[in-house]
Amino acid sequence: MMATSYSKNGWTLVKFDLNYHAAHYAPEFPRLADVWLSSLRQLSPCLQTLTTHLKYYSPPTPSESKMPWDIIKFNDGNQIPGIGFGTWKIPVGDTTVDQVDQAISVGFNHIDTAQAYRNEEEAGKAIHESGLKRDEIFITTKYSGLNGLDIETSIKNSLKNLGVQYIDLYLIHHPRLAVPDIPTAWRQMEGLKNAGLVKSIGISNFEIEHVDTLLASAKIVPAVNQIILHPYAYKRQAPLLEYLNEKGIVYEAYSPLIPVTQFPGGPVDKPVKAAAKRLNATDDQILLAWAKAKGAVVLTSSSKKYRLEGYLEAGDLVLTDDEIKAIDDAGAKGTRIFTARTIVRRTAAVLFAGAIALGVCSYLGIDVV
User: Fold this and answer.
1) Which candidate, 265, 270, 266, places its Cα nearest to that of 286?
2) Of 142, 156, 193, 200, which has the fewest CB atoms closer than 10 Å, so is most exposed?
């Protein structure tokens, strides 16, 4: 056989013998192939028996794309994909590269990282290896005050680590990191946007009072506030969401799957499972659909390919108003889970503490009525 080819994650590998015209096997780039052949044949006649591999990237066609999530428009005119792959808690090193690569391969085009995660370089490597053009991937990173560096120095480091000329969205990771104060830090962020180093600027974990302080002197309104959001946090966060809507600030939801990852068996389980049964979906898909219904851009993560594919498919799920309300109401009850085992353990703890108290009183000669 004169040539063989196969595809993997959007890449096509073409192997062909140098004695044959490469254009016959790789018509997408005959000039490049001819240059390779000509150069090699001039080196030595013996090279004519060698084979070579040409590697090129074929972006997925629209029909292959798995991105049913909406594109959300910012107040500055820029846009963000409705779901993103988060790199928080992913071990630094090849694991980050592999997981970001996998996320991109299944259809994620929004990658979220931060200084504090210490994996910007690995995320950048995976992005570059994907072969996607810069405008085909949305990159978020955050100023985390790492090593005491200021905002201007930090953005330069992030650009270098990620290997890009600009960041799509740059956030102040937490209000306590806005040093020496929020107005001053925000002016520095505005400077980055005006300089073209970042397309959009935003905040993370800011409460209403923090945003008020920022807006009092801001020339540019934050595009985003990235916050924790899941059914058990909704009651507490609802006033903030309403406030952000009034100000035209998009909110991103991180840790939306906490009810199933950290508090299985809680009050939210029942309405989530009911919706999952109706829609023939999984519990985690329902939680993502719930966050989308609240108007949030969703951040999620997994090392499992099938889960990532399911997360993308969740963008097509539509919950009824009754289902959303049932999840809201269940979340408002909190994560406290009372089971027979819990009751026995707590009763035993109380009895044990009581026995110790009685023993101490008896030792001290104190009468207990």
Assistant:
1) 270
2) 156
Peptide bond into 180 cis (omega under 30): yes
How many angstroms separate the CA atoms of 207 and 282, rounded? 32
Helical H runs in the chain? 30-43, 94-106, 120-129, 151-162, 182-194, 208-215, 231-247, 258-261, 269-279, 283-293, 305-313, 321-332, 340-364
Spatial neighbors of 281 by CB under 8 A, at least 6 apart, are 275, 289, 314, 317
Cα dist. 92→98, 117, 119, 120, 365 in Å? 11, 8, 6, 9, 60
Distance CA 297, CA 78 (A): 14
pLDDT tens per residue across span 87-135: 999 988 999 999 999 999 999 999 999 999 999 999 999 999 999 999 9
Catalytic amino acids?
117, 173
Question: Using CA atoms, how far apart are residues 217 and 224, in angstroms rounded to an integer?
Answer: 17
Q: What is the pLDDT of residues 47-62, one digit of tens each?
A: 333 333 333 333 333 3
Burial of 81 by CB count in 10 Å (0-12 exposed, 13-18 middle, 19+ buried)? Answer: buried
Closest CA to 130 of 5, 9, 28, 14: 9
**What span, in angstroms and rounded, lies between the C-alpha atoms of 306 and 234?**
28
Is the distance from CB of 84 to CB of 298 less than 8 angstroms?
A: yes
Give the Cα separation of 312 and 107 in Å (integer).
8
The pTM assigned to this predicted structure is 0.74
Tell which phi-psi region holds residue 219, choosing left (phi > 0), alpha (psi between -120 and 50) or beta: alpha
Report CA dihedral (4, 10, 11, 14) to the nearest 10 degrees: 20
Crossing angle between the packed helical segments 231-247 and 208-215, to the nearest 10 degrees:
20
Residue 369 in this model has a pLDDT that exceeds 60: no
Q: Over 80: is that where the pLDDT of 20 sits? A: no
Tabulate helix, strand, coil % of the chain (nearest 5).
50, 20, 35
* Tokens linked to 164: 């890009």
* Helix, strand, or coil (residue 10): coil
